[in-house]
Write a structure and sequence with these properties.
Strand 7 (120-126) and strand 8 form a beta hairpin. By secondary structure, the chain is of the alpha+beta class. It has helices at residues 6-21, 25-33; strands at 46-53, 57-64, 69-76, 83-91, 97-104, 107-114, 120-126, 129-136.
Amino acid sequence: MRRLPRSARRIMTVIGTLVLTGTGMAATATTAYAASYNGVCGTGYSLVDSAAIGNVGTVFLTWNGSTGKNCAVAVRNTPGAAVWMEAWVSRTADGGGDIDNGYFTSYAGPVYIDGRNTCIAFSGTIGSQSATRGPGHCG
């Protein structure tokens, strides 16, 4: 069996990837620049949910099972000049919560709340775009 040249194998890999994802090059470009959770909540926190903040970033919700706390952080896709940012997390039963806002270059938060025996909502804002999730994540 004759082996294809390296350039042909690369082309076949790209075509296979596009066929498998069914979304083409635009999805690949979007994924490459999407924000990822930066770990600022600390050790013991696991990612449980996220929401895209328009096309500028993502708000992440994490959970620490040993402390019973949730943490939220809003992260920009691309750090740059300071813009208005906000991260908040709230208990839906009593409205208690935590917020961090101001002009930041890469992320807002982390913000924490005791999430045991209650449901949580969380939100993030970057510039004029925002995303909110909840109520949900009941612990």
